[in-house]
Amino acid sequence: xxxxxxxxxxxxxxxxxxxxxxxxxxxxxxxxxxxxxxxxxxxxxxxxxxxxxxxxxxxxxxxxxxxxxxxxxxxxxxxxxxxxxxxxxxxxxxxxxxxxxxxxxxxxxxxxxxxxxxxxxxxxxxxxxxxxxxxxxxxxxxxxxxxxxxxxxxxxxxxxxxxxxxxxxxxxxxxxxxxxxxxxxxxxxxxxxxxxxxxxxxxxxxxxxxxxxxxxxxxxxxxxxxxxxxxxxxxxxxxxxxxxxxxxxxxxx
Length: 253
Ligand code: MN
Prior knowledge:
The chain is an alpha/beta fold.
């Protein structure tokens, strides 16, 4: 069996849409395309906070992909809402945080993209800039109006990091579609890429070896940019490796 990768989904928000008539779960197919190209078997994940269902997903999936989307409720990093905070999706927050916490206990690989990278950061004890324009003056434009698949700004990658292994070099160019970013780091989290204005563009963990968060959107570039596709290859390959190891060790979760 090829590695099974769970992909989180989003929901419409605004004007109470999440709580009223628009309950469709949505996600860009770019994610599943990239996982299939990497040789993985993608599954889209519904929202749930049911501990038994979360436990089953944690057992059955070999890897987890936390996708981009709406702002995380600042409550989860101990802040009141500031000017510039945009829409939040409370049921998505609850579901992803519960699943991420459960998944972390297994050592199975997790890739977080944009919001997913921020979910990882917050679960690991970091805080976020609620709005870069207001709270990070004189930074680059991290939300330029250009095509989603176009590399927009450079990143500097830390030597020896997972991302360095993926890129094979200490610089890269990435797209950028975010108005928030990781602010204060917790002790267990390390920065493994920054843009030239110092904004955190990737994180990894000092404790969990198979964890990568990227602030950019490799799914939009995977078709045209081999380095972006290699991020998904890493998730699938690493998920396969850990699956094999667990089989050999006969560890049951
Ligand atoms: Mn950026």
